[in-house]
Each structure stands twice: as C-alpha cells, then as structure tokens.
Amino acid sequence: MADHFKLDMTNRSTRITIFKDVSDNFAEEYREILSGGSNQETNATNEPMTPAMETVFSEIGKAKSEEAEISADADAKPKRKSPNTDNGELARKYAVYNYKKRLNRRSEQFRTDAYMNFKVPNVQFVTLTFDPRTFEGANDLDICHNAFKKFIQRIRYDYDNFVYVASFSRQKETNNWHYHMLCNFDTEVRNKYIQDKWSYGMVESSPITSNSELQSCISYCIDNMYEVAWNDLHAEKGYLKSKGLIKRVTYRSWKDDEADDAYFYLSQIINSTDKPLDQSSKSVTNLFDQEVMISKKISHKVFPELFDNAKVATLKKRNKKK
User: How would you class 57 by CB atoms within 10 Å of its CB: exposed for 0-12, middle for 13-18, buried for 19 or more?
Assistant: First the structure.
C-alpha cells in the first residue's frame, strides 16, 4: 500500500487531492474509476512519503476515524422507506444531482479560464445582441453560434493572439440569444470596431479597469450560464472559448515523469505561509473492495513561473496605419 497525491495548479491557487493507503495498482484504478477511462493516468511509481507528505497526511487519520463513527451511528438507526419512491423518481433525482455537479464544474472551469487568460487593463467585457429585424434565427442557438464563429473569424483576420471566453443566454423580452464575452482587447480597441465586425445587432463594450470589476464580470457571465442551463443547454456546451488558452498545470505523484516535480512543489507549499486548508474528506471503495481515503485541500501559494503571461490581441501589420 502507498500514499499518492495530485496537484492542480493555477495562477490563483493550488488544489491538492490526496489518496491514502492505495494499492500498488493505483494508477490503473484511478484511470478506470476517477478519470472515466482516460488514458492519461498511467506509469505508477511508489515514492516514499517525504516529511512534507507526512505533514499533509497528519490530519487524515483523525478525519477517517470520525467518519467511521458517524457511519456506525447512521447504520444503527432504522432506515425508513418512502412508499412514494420508485425507480423512476430515484433516476430523476440522480440525474438532477449529476447535472448540478456538472454545472458547478463548468462554472469553476469558466472562472479558471478567465482568471488565467485575462489581465487588467488588457481585457474588455463585450455584450453582443441580435436584431430580429435584420437577423433571422435569433431564437436558434445553432444559427447564433454560427454567426458568433464568423464574428470571431473576422476579428482574427485583423488581430493576432486574440482569445476569448463567452457565455450565452436568452433575453427576457424577446427570448433571443445574446452573448457576454471577455476578450483580450486593450483600451485602444473601440466599440465602433467591434460593432462593425459583429453586424448582427447591437454591441456594448467596455474596458475593464480593476480586478474587482473583472471579478464582477466573470460572475455575471456565470450567472447567465445558469439562467439557461436547465431548459436550454442539456447536452450542449455551457460556454464558448478560444483554443490555446493558458491551462492549469497538473502533477501526479504516481507518474514517473511528474513525481519529482509533484514532491518539489508540495514541499514548497508546505514550507510556505499559505498552508493547505481542508476542503473535504471521504472514503471510497476501490475495485478490490478496499477502503481508500480521498482528501482535498487548497493552498493560495502560486508559482507564476509555471504559466505564460496572458496574451494581448495585437493588430496585424497589414492593418496598421502607415
């Protein structure tokens, strides 16, 4: 048996997932159970625990025993079976539960993409609407997405390194779709230019001048995602984004080519002032009916050297005034 951990690192925080007392075949189990069959989790190694790891794990034994006591108390109580519950209702509740988790992951990913790829003052918040008098299909999401794609292509004809994230929802008055976009335009790009490239309706754009304003715009986009998530976006993408965005960095202790870095950065976190804070702990059963404790922690210790600087859209030479 061994202990393993995973670091999910962004330019804002580091999330630590700890797997205690896992089998020697842990990498294969992780691939099958936690990654949904992904081929990324391979090449397990069994590194001994460092003093840093001992520190991280020191609280897990206590949490595990407390959880066992709670579980024993729950088992001792007689369970009531609702006469109105059938398999169909259970399936519906399970589907709702899973979709809520999916929405939470989606909103967290949007937030991560935005914070990692946009920096004040080189970021603008843009609202794009459709005019039904000149644009047919403003109620059809596929048609609207196609128009948005052409809009992005027109901008990229003029600008290098243009990146964006965008949410979409329906307008309450007309039920037409509209977009809220964060993009890496600097303060020199005017609303008139964006309006000319959009051409399907009204545009409202404004440079973001503070981190608090950026935070508010990100939250507003996420709120718009939730507005249509239940009725309109089942089996649909929750938001649109550029390819090539700066992504989080992941290190896993059980991978041969990542283990050294994983232990190095964990040691840096443990020895910093940003000690890991507990988020959750739970016990799961693996493929061999063995109990595995999974604990999640977070630290605000960050490592800027791991991430590229946020890009700024730059006007192509052929479009610059001579």
Answer: middle
**What does the domain layout of the chain look like in residue ranges?**
2-75+248-306, 116-245+311-319
**DSSP string of 170-233, one letter each residue:** E-TTT--EEEEEEE---TTS-HHHHHHHH-SS-EEEEE--SHHHHHHHHHHHHHHHHHHHTTT-
Q: What is the mean pLDDT of each run of 10 residues along the chain (322 residues)?
A: 87 91 66 46 42 48 47 51 63 76 88 95 97 94 96 97 96 93 96 96 96 96 86 75 93 92 94 89 66 87 90 85 52
- Return the structure tokens found at 213: 């304003």
pTM of the model: 0.75
- Architecture of 116-245+311-319 per CATH? 2-Layer Sandwich (3.30)
End-to-end CA distance of the chain: 68
State the virtual CA torsion across 153, 111, 167, 218 in degrees, nearest 10: -100
